[in-house]
Amino acid sequence: MSFYCGIDWAEAHHDVAVVDDTGKVIARARISTDAVGFAELLDLLTQAGDTAQDPIPVAIETDHGLLVAALRATDRPIYPINPLSASRYRARRQVSGAKSDAMDAVMLADILRTDAAAHRPLPADTELAQAIRVLARAQQDAVWERQRLGNQVRGLCKDFYPAALDAFADLARGARGGSGLARRDARTVLAAAPTPARVAKLTRAQLRKLLTRAGRRRNVGDDVERLYAVFRAQGRLRQPQLVEDAMGLQLAALLRQFDAACAAAEDLAEAATTHFERHPDAKTIASFPGLGALAGARVLAEIGDDRTRFADARGLKAYAGSAPITRASGRKEIILHRHIKNKRLAAAGQIWALASLRASPGARRHFDRRRAKGDWNHQAQRHLFNKFLGLLHHCLQTGQLYDEHVAFPPPLAAAA
């Protein structure tokens, strides 16, 4: 007889239930969230028939946290159940709408008993791959936070400080990864002079000192003259003085948050790339056009290094949301792109596809061919990302590096 365990986790406690092949509850308990509670969980599973050779699988509505890490160390199958799926199962079991943590634990165990094949077990990724996932996701979150705060800074400057936009908004990406207002020199100058009145009083020497403090070494003299002219230009609209001062205080406070987000994105990017370069799959992933160390770390973070996770390339493409779905009913059939997907991997795929257009002639031909067939820009990018994922799955499974001529045969070779 087989047994199945369901855990309804919470911040204060966890409810556990074990059912047998018939769905009968043979054990249940409420455990604490500390090491003592985990020991109680292991004792309960052992009494239910858990062994090292035949561990009882566990269903839980999360794929991270200390409890999942401890369960992973026991080498048992762990099934992270999507909360949306769990709610659908709950409606099937209890049409009245009744709900309790103990009932949810039984329901999760029953999901494994009846539909384990329909759910994906937690992949057996290495510790290095898990560390890369933590760092790459944190860096991606920091970038999104940096973009959100940057938009707020830009919107505020537009309302009272348009000279800042003229001076910095169009600057190219700097050595430390920022562009426009996210550049370190832009943030340094705005922090020192957060209002048009104060920035107009900066001398050339003060501007040079601020740019040097921000790490600028090249073309400092030219930028000093340009900034000096922009900040002292006449004819700009101004807010009333008291309002301008208040908005300057708001900008100074916002810049402190913006600085923290920019620093976090830079530090986490360095850590993520350092860990990525240590991984055995880094050489294969980085061999693809458009995938640098940071983008490669984001891809590896989401697909992991468990070779059994995706049975074929189709599974990986569906997971990334690059493969289309078909909705057919009667004589009506439409093809749509996926909305349910790993959004982090899909975001990395957009960067990958765009960067590959300049790095790979074959990718550019493929993209142009799709556009000529009527695809919109995003559709063509998604199709290119879909092709790259199929190639990546093959290369990781076989240990090969990316080959441009195999991936995108030259037109003459293809015709022959």
Folded structure, characterized:
The chain is an alpha/beta fold. Helices cover 59% and strands 9% of the residues. It contains 19 helices and seven strands. The protein has a five-stranded mixed beta sheet with strand order 3-2-1-4-5. The protein has a two-stranded antiparallel ribbon with strand order 6-7. Helix 6 runs antiparallel to helix 10, helix 14 crosses helix 17 and helix 15 packs across helix 17. The protein is globular. It starts with a strand and ends with a helix. The model has no long low-confidence stretch (mean pLDDT 91).
Number of helices: 19
Order of helices and strands: EEEHEHEHHHHHHHHHHHHEEHHHHH
What is the overall pLDDT average?
Answer: 91
Distance between the termini: 60 Å
Note poorly predicted spans.
Answer: none
Count of extended strands: 7
**Strand arrangement across the biggest beta sheet:** 3-2-1-4-5
Q: Approximately what portion of the residues adopt beta-strand conformation?
A: 5-15%
Helix content: 55-70%
For the largest beta-sheet, the strand count, sense and barrel status come to: 5 strands, mixed
Class from helix and strand fractions: alpha/beta
Overall radius of gyration:
27 Å
User: Shape, please?
Assistant: globular
